[in-house]
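User: Hi! I'm working on a homework problem where we have to compare a predicted structure to a textbook description. Could you give me the structure for the chain below?
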Amino acid sequence: MVPELQTVLKSIDLNDKEITVYDALLPLGRGTVRELSMRTGINRGTVHDILETLLEKGLLLSERQGSRRRFLLAPPKNIVAVLEERGRALRDQTKKIEEVMPQLMSLYAKQGGRPRVEYFDSDEGIKKILDDVLETLTQEKNEKEYVLYSSKSVRSYLYKLFPNFTKEKVKRGIFTKVIGLGEGADPKHIAMAERKIVTHDAPAYMIVYGPKIALISVAEDDTPFGVRIDDGKIARTQRLLFDMLWDRLEK
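Assistant: Happy to help. Predicted structure tokens:
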């Protein structure tokens, strides 16, 4: 067998015995299990299994003549088809890895006490953040409360895929302290909440809940995005700053 062909066969995951059987079949064009076992010195049971594998990969064909079964070489272009299929599978795997890469990077960053940081894009991502707020605080053993800076310019993007968020929050007994950045809050989203106002708007929404912080804003193409930081020290610092501002504001 020419070295280049052997390299190609290895690239489609054929092992040494499979390559040996394929190589033995090349000059014959077709052969039986018995014939190929004799040419390769590999026992019949193993040769049979190898031929079935090569058949599944599309590298061989089979035919029957009475009780005898022969295996034939498939057109060489089938090797290209196998390579193309492997390429598609590799691209699919790469895409899946890219999709989970933010979570993997977050877990990696968490090593050594580093904060876990995750990025969320689109309305679906914002819903994941809101879901996490509820789930995190539901598990809290102490007082179930979170605080937030409610940005007027971001509010309309927040509940698109979770219009019943406030109802679910009330159902779980979660209280909220809100510093409204700009006027115009929607009353249906401030149940079980105490609110104070800062007249100046800001371009980002911030939620401090448990050991986490979520920052939500809107990109230039009008798509909402969010960043979640899971770190108790950072969350406590932001809560301290919130409480200091809260105490200075009038109701």
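For your comparison, note the following. DSSP finds nine helices and ten strands in the chain. The domain at 110-248 is CATH 3.30.870.10 (Endonuclease; Chain A). Good luck with the assignment!
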